Amino acid sequence: MLFDQMGIHGWQAIEPVVLAALASDLSVLFVGDIGGNKTEGAERIARALLGQDIEFRAYEVPTLNFDDLVGFVNPKTLAKGALQFVPTPLSIWNADAVLLDEINRANPFIQSKLHELVRKRTLLGMPTNLKMVFSAVNPPETYNTGYMDLALASRFVCVQVPNVSAMDEIQIEHILSGNGIGRGGHDLRGMLARASAFEPSGIEAMRITSLCKKIMSDLGNSGIVFNARQLKMMVSLVTSGLALQWASGLDVFTNPDSIASYIGAVIPEINGIARTRVDASVVRGTIRTIVTGFQLADPMTMARNLPELIEIEPSDVLAWAGAVDRSIESERQPQLLRDVLRRLPILQGKGVIEHDLSRTLMEKAAARFATLTLIEEGTPVLEIPGRIHNIIENLKGEVS
């Protein structure tokens, strides 16, 4: 699909999570077999999204010396009490993107420095030019290469790179022949730029947060060690998936498989890179079940109009609120918006919806009502602020 136009074939299943990670400004960890195109794939992705002329570095971490990363200390500035480095062709300072290969085999000193690079794109507290950080490991169970420390592993979005044996004949033919390079026509740089400008609605943000909190709660007894950073990463990836769907028009970014992959990508214990007794298949099944339940209740699939929606007492409150939110945006009848403003306090009083959610929807309905009234009246521009205040106050009196 999207990566085919870069000449990366057979990666369709992991495209959404890779792009969501990069849109979230998170570091990506490719987990896959030797010769699985991890290094070349990282470089092609970086050049496609940042520009063909970028500085890309690939480091073999097991043999990496600290001087390789920083260059050499500048004695002139050191004599003045300032720490600066003389960059070399290998140093990190001017690189736009980097791949840290076999990061699980780093010596402890280098690994402590890479923590900072992965987390903040800085080194020794000094800024770099890095915009993308990729790492790569071979599956420890397969290659006996050593497991990763959870503190480092949990800073990545983990992506399972497919083995060629799992690809179909067409994908293999493309790999062998190069057929497909440059085809597809998607402006990936533009797509990410548009996605970065996306702001989810308040209702949508609440649904995403609710989904991630539920997954963390339901997996609480599975042996997985969750932290606040992972929860934030989950929310960020799912939100970026929604942003990419909005920017591209491609539903693949918000289908259940992709959403489940966003969630699973921030759990090192199920990606084969950390030593654990967690049953990965059970955890993935739990995630998929929860995600599917949320998807089935997604407001986009609910074929109800506003009068029908406000008369029901929903079991999935956030899905219902999302549908009401979208219906308000397109409603053209002021009376129906009055009905919404009368109904929401009733549902709140019954404990069906929370105060903050009710207030958010009421503000949305009142704003839409004011907009329709201004359009109908043809209010002069200079009088709009005062007229909006009067409309809102009158509306409060009507529905109270």
Automatic annotation (TrEMBL):
One of its GO terms (molecular function) is ATP binding. Residues 28-156 form the ATPase dynein-related AAA domain. It holds the Pfam family AAA_5. This is AAA domain (Dynein-related subfamily). It comes from Desulfatibacillum alkenivorans DSM 16219.
